[in-house]
Specification:
Elements (H helix, E strand, L loop, with lengths): L3 E5 L4 H17 L3 E7 L11 H27 L7 E7 L3 H12 L3 E6 L9 H12 L4 E5 L9 E5 L5 H4 L2 H11 L2 E8 L2 H5 L2 H9 L6 E6 L3 H12 L3 E4 L14 H9 L4 E3 L6
Parallel strand pairs: 1-2, 1-4, 2-3, 4-5, 6-7, 6-9, 7-8, 9-10
Antiparallel strand pairs: 5-10
């Protein structure tokens, strides 16, 4: 079960919306704790500076971060339900490194982050780092568009390229989310050869992996991958789209191409990235 949600924030509108999403999701899945983390700017110092001098330079940033965190925690606490604990950490460490460390120390099973929507170029700090974190995280990362308002998770879409199924499918992580939300699982494969996909061994393997959740498997013939996913999401009223960052296949470099930029930045549905960290 998912008991702890890790929530990075920079106090922007984007990150604050992700915070509201995290609170509502915690209510639905019965999570016990939300861990808020903020990485603050630290003034760079030259080599001759001693440790105590660097501490003096950094201290104003630390104090400002602490004050903002207290205010943010008060804001989230007013929104949370009874039984959900909120705790906060901050430092001037690299965001990805800090989050990986917090996953180990807090036992977090899920990261929730915001990302600017509408195809905007100027993302907030957290928004611009979301994709980087998603590529490297060993636990699932839900990326929440600024425009999205939480809706109870009832339908989840897993997008698959039907390649290297056994090696790359994060079965346990996806099952954890399904178990926590009690949502219906849909599996979508976008291809130019639907007949081959429908009769493929990979389809049978993938369906068997989630057999206890009786997934609905869908194959769409569409040269526009993003368009196909968008259509399916709207048609089936999907609340979360799951993608797997992979080195090869249809989703090759998905986190460095326009696919994810379009799905996460312009999309209006949360995107969950999850790697098969057990392989």
């Amino acid at each position: 079960m998912i008991q702890t949600i890790l929530l990075p924030t920079d106090f922007s509108v984007t990150a604050t919306n992700a915070g509201l999403y995290a609170v509502e999701l915690a209510k639905q899945i019965g999570a016990k704790k939300i861990v808020v983390y903020h990485t603050y700017d630290a003034a760079s110092v030259s080599e001759p500076f001693k440790d105590y001098q660097q501490k003096i330079v950094t201290e104003p940033f630390r104090q400002k971060s602490a004050a903002q965190l207290n205010e943010y925690i008060s804001f989230l606490s007013a929104k949370k339900s009874f039984g959900v604990e909120i705790e906060a950490y901050h430092s001037h460490a690299d965001l990805t490194v800090a989050l990986n460390d917090l996953v180990k120390t807090t036992g977090a099973e899920l990261i929730v982050m915001g990302i600017t929507g509408g195809g905007k170029i100027k993302e907030a700090l957290i928004g611009s780092h979301s994709i980087s974190v998603a590529k490297k995280s060993d636990i699932p990362v839900i990326i929440v568009p600024t425009e999205y308002s939480f809706t109870t998770v009832e339908d989840i879409l897993f997008v698959s390229d039907l390649k290297d199924i056994e090696e790359t499918t994060p079965v346990d992580a996806i099952k954890d989310v399904l178990k926590a939300t009690n949502a219906k699982l849909h599996i979508l494969h976008v291809t130019d050869n639907t007949e081959k996909a429908e009769s493929s061994e990979e389809k049978q393997q993938l369906t068997a992996m989630f057999n206890e959740y009786t997934p609905d498997f869908h194959v769409m013939n569409n040269p526009d991958f993003v368009g196909a996913v968008d259509f399916f999401v709207k048609d089936r009223k999907i609340e979360i789209v799951i993608v797997v960052p992979k080195k090869h296949g249809l989703l090759e470099n998905i986190f460095s191409t326009s696919y994810t930029k379009t799905l996460a930045f312009r999309g209006k549905t949360p995107l969950m990235a999850v790697r098969n960290s057990s392989k």
